[in-house]
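Batch manifest, entry 17 of 40.
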Amino acid sequence: MHFWDYDYGWAGSIHNLFQKTDVGSHVMKDNFLHYKLIGYVIYSMQPWFYSPFKGEKVGLPKYKAHWNFIQSNKKTSMERTFGMLKGIFKILLKRIDIPLCHLPNLVMICICLHNMCIANLNGFDMD
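Output type: structure tokens
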């Protein structure tokens, strides 16, 4: 899996984070007509944004529990992609001693190299 976009500068737990990103603002203006984003339960379901249904598997109707299972698998894929990025670029796992203003460029370079490796199937065990 590769990265399509990234945003930075909003550390911590911010509930309206999505609205502050470039991707979020474009999606909310219907600029991604045939794309859907997958998110967490704290965000409400929208035509362009899929989130899991609230509740436990046992108490949900079968179709809602099934959707939560599918959504959870997609979330796992996203987490695996971040794990691959950090596994290859170990610099992202530790304290980085560069000026803070250069950190977004470092992350962007790692993401670009990650995507290039995925595109060429170099350096990754896909299993």
